[in-house]
Amino acid sequence: MDSIAPKREEVTGEVERRIVAQLLALMDGLESRGKVVVLGATNRVNSLDPALRRGGRFDREIEIGVPNRDARLQILQIHTRGMPLAEDVELDKLADVAHGFVGADLAALAKEGALRAVRRVLPEIDLEEKTIPPDVLEKLTVTREDFLSALGEMEPSALREVFVESPNIKWDDIGGLEQSKQELKEAVEWPLKYQKLYGYMKAETPKGILLLGPPGTGKTMLAKAVATESEVNFISVKGPEFLSKWVGESEKAVRETFRKAKQASPCIIFFDEIDAITPTRGQSFDSHVTERVISQFLAELDGLEELHSVVVIAATNRPDMIDRALLRPGRFDRMVEVPLPDEAARLEILRIHMKDKPFTDDVDVQKLVRETANYSGADIAGIVRESIMLAIREYVQSGKSVDDDEEMQKYRVTGNHIKEAREKVKPEKEREMGIYT
Question: pTM of the predicted model, to two decimals?
Answer without folding.
Answer: 0.69
